[in-house]
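Summary for the funding panel

The consortium committed to producing paired sequence-structure records for every protein in the target list. Below we show the first two records in order, beginning with the earlier of the two.
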Amino acid sequence: MDVPECHSTNTHLANLLGQGELPEGAVVITPRQTSGRGQRGNVWVTDPGKNLTLSVLLKPVFLHPRQQFYLTMAVALAITDTLAQWDLPSVVKWPNDILINEKKVAGILIENQIIGDRWTNAIIGIGLNVNQQHFSLPQASSLLQITGHTFSLEEILNALLLNLEVRYDHLRHSLALLKAHYLNQLYLKNTAHEFESAGVKFTGMITGVDEAGRLLILQTGQTIAYDLKEIHYL
């Protein structure tokens, strides 16, 4: 569904879902998102008509809710797969920011609906900076800024949805393969880096993620698992 303007594609899709059953794979996309949301309560700001802002409805009922980080892996890899088709090597900064040359070009916001121990719906919000020229945040960039030329939003969207379908199939049938590919794309894996947790700065090395999706960091001879709000990159 192409919407001329909305506050948030995730919210719009959630509202449609609340009005009645939607088929798995339903997509809401807009050229103008006015109040996009990101991780940690951040706002996803995008110039109208320049980027991809969309949400996809998935129904991963075949997985237990404790496996929900595998869906994050699948979506992140669908984006890196898509960028690779345009010879744009990218990495995944845990948990789900997509970087090219240390700059963020895409982000993901997944909102799950879980009843008891059953995962019913997942709304997958994706923002990919494509043809935007200027950003207020220095850590953000776009494919245009990186390459110097514009891209067809339709071509990238079609590739992204196809890659998402492939990675969703991995989610159904090959979690081990999905995780291996995610770890292969993980930013700063096996590289010493500065972090901060609970106000304390330290040097550690990312070794992977656990089954709950927590970041595993080796520091002072032991590996510690961190949730999203417990660790910051410096």
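The next record, for a separate protein in the list, is shown here:
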Amino acid sequence: MWLADTWNDYEVIDCSKGEKLERWGKYLLVRPDPQILWDTPRDAAGWSHPNARYHRSSKGGGQWEFFDLPDQWSIRYRELTFNLKPFSFKHTGLFPEQAANWDWFGKLIRDTGRPVRILNLFAYTGGATLAAAAAGANVTHVDASKGMVGWARENAKASGLEQAPIRWIVDDCMKFAERELRRGNHYDGIIMDPPSYGRGPKGEIWKIEDAIHPLVQSCARLLSDRPLFFLINSYTTGLAPSVLAYLLSLEVAKKHGGSVAADELGLPVRSTGLILPCGASGRWSSE
């Protein structure tokens, strides 16, 4: 398992009975997590006095209950600053377990000793984009949500990366990749974090089981002659890490060689020393 265990401003304090108690900077949040199937005593003090709690509805979705939480606040990871706020379906605008991937490809970018171009698809609020830019890459950031791209730009400004070489694109990711192929553009690294289900800016429907392989095929053709890495993230239940490894082996390693690895991402739990699984990643690198 790949661990995001170098945070200072974030931690999972405890988890039990389908919920996790987290510290985001100086604020404590309680959020549901379907992976937490155990029923253990909740001894950590924060359980009884969180700043906010997300209640899941039996009919789907849910809502926040606020006690003492600002509309927006920020946390840092290394040189990066991320603006956070609670919004629909329990999210805060950041997936802290992805720091394990940021560190991995950040080192590859820094160590390569040459300019690199990175394409980040389904780029959300820009965690991977900023990590790549901070490492020295030229990044193209693509997401179908105008609001998410705007949020990512705010994070770039907060991180001192407002003038970094980042292209901000609001577009359907598959259509953008196809247009880039027609334009003859290429990238040294590709990052993608496809949702299980989604809609593009013009109502395009995305279903991961139907679309992931064609997208990987197209993006593999976007790789340069000297590619550095290819990263696929997934939070889709039932999509095993080995599936991501197979896609990368089939579409990337078969042509470019290198190495493929896949595993779960995890966050350490302070109270128990256990690891909370948080999705899966597949990694290809030229090394």
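Regarding this second record: The domain at 2-84 is CATH 2.60.40.1180 (Immunoglobulin-like). The chain has two domains: 2-84, 96-285.
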